[in-house]
Amino acid sequence: MTTLVTGASGFVGAAVVRALLARGEAVRALVRAHSDRRNLAGLDVEVAEGDLRDRSSLDRAARGCDALYHVAADYRIWVPDPEPMFAANVEGSRNVLRAAAQAGARRMVYTSSVAVLGNPGDGRPGDEATPVAYGDMVGTYKRTKFRAEEAVRALVADEGLPVVIVNPSTPIGPRDVRPTPTGRLIVEAAAGRMPAFVDTGLNVVHVDDVAAGHLLAFDRGEVGERYVLGGDDMDLRDILAVVAAHVGRRPPTVRLPHGLVMPLAVLAEAWTRLRGRGEPFATVDGIRMARKKMFFSSARAERELGYTHRPGTAAITEAIDWFHDQGYLE
Questions:
Q1: How does DSSP classify residue 279?
Q2: 163: domain CATH number?
Q3: How far apart are CA 69 and CA 97, in angstroms?
Q4: Which of 146, 179, 184, 256 is most deeply packed, by most CB within 10 A?
Q5: Domain total for the chain?
């Protein structure tokens, strides 16, 4: 069996590739022409170059594959122009799923996100059934992933595509080469460059547990259904305390009100637009999202798939050790 993995050079995608190789599967890794491929170095994979917006490249990549893990996504908290992100995350998902179906794939897993799920906002965890609407989505990334999951569900219902959906929470761990927005938070805190924090929270999960959850969804998930792949709910203050303890620093004790940080985010975005490059150190959407604690339950995946996860503290400390060894903290 040859399995196609999109986003294979990325943080979660590469973890899925390693999990598939560990159980003896032949993997074809879809990557963009100029992508950073450090996460694939030394792995026994067939590399196929392509782009989610180029259907012909996806047809070539899917040829001969009977399974698909569509992990790729444009994941950025801030973008100056939302259209490319919509094209990659929404239309790109349609393209690759249809290409795989045409190639004869018998089973597919689509990587969504807890970002599209409902959030009670009062500290209680959300899950697959928590009510939510498009108007609840804050920021371009969440909006694109919401529309993308809608598109995937339509392909299941209207065209009979055999897709199972997974919704990872906040993956943390080694080999976050980019790093992701959460990885950058860990790096800044470990390097002592985060003297204060806002009152928010995340569901922290080890990236390798997320990868294992993908394989469980492929093996045991129900077509058309979705499964949260999460870990431990942790306040940001507690996350920063774990980081500080691991690197021998004092944790930050100053909690900044969201209203105080918002003007800084406005200025940071304006400066980034003026420069015409880079990403702002704080974003308006990021501060708006931080007003809610992003807590979620993986109970359904645990019950129906046999999903398990290690403590969130292990994900954080392993990430710090990897960032340290790779020179990110210098």
A1: -
A2: 3.40.50.720
A3: 9
A4: 146
A5: 1
